[in-house]
Amino acid sequence: MKDVIVSNTLYWIVISFMMIIFVVTIIFNSYLFVLDNKITQQANLSRVNSQKSTIAIYYGDGQTKTFRGYVPTEGLSLYDALLSSAEAGGLKISFIKDEEGRIRLVSIDRFINDGKNCWEIEIPNIKWSRKLCDANIDLQKIYLTGGTIAHIVYK
Asked: Residues 6 or more apart from 99 whose CB is under 8 A from it?
């Protein structure tokens, strides 16, 4: 008789242990499922944010206009970005195409690239800047990629 009681007790201990393992496995799998969903959402959100680019136009008189939009994977030229910003924000932007085919910025609203003052592009993330009144600048050769923040400053 004693052997039957030990066997019966051992049987229930093993069954209880297997039930505990089963419940812990279900809880752990649920946790991993939720964690996987959160990681996927964050990855998708960062991918969407990295496809957006920001252009901030500083007029030099305290006025600022900021534009943010999606950028194709291959990038977007500064010329196209300024055209899109002009269309979206009601800006008056003038360009000129020189004899070598380069597109240069003439003015944004009433602020003109002249001998005294000049528009300048600054990309602080990479510590890069260029004067947009330079005769060698071609706005179609300056590309913005996703995640870029460009400052267009009138100095």
From this structure: none
Helix (H, G, I), strand (E, B) or coil at 32: helix
CB 122 within 8 A of CB 142: no
Q: How confident is the model at residue 42, as a pLDDT?
A: 81
Q: What is the pLDDT of residues 47-87, one digit of tens each?
A: 665 688 899 999 988 899 999 888 887 888 999 999 988 88
Q: From the centroid of its chain, how far is CA 95?
A: 27
Q: Strands, DSSP E only, in the chain? A: 52-58, 64-70, 76-77, 93-97, 103-108, 111-112, 119-123, 128-131, 143-144, 149-154
3-class secondary structure, 131 = strand
- Which of 74, 38, 92, 64 is closest to 153 using CA atoms? 64
Label residue 7 by pLDDT band (50, 70, 90). Answer: confident
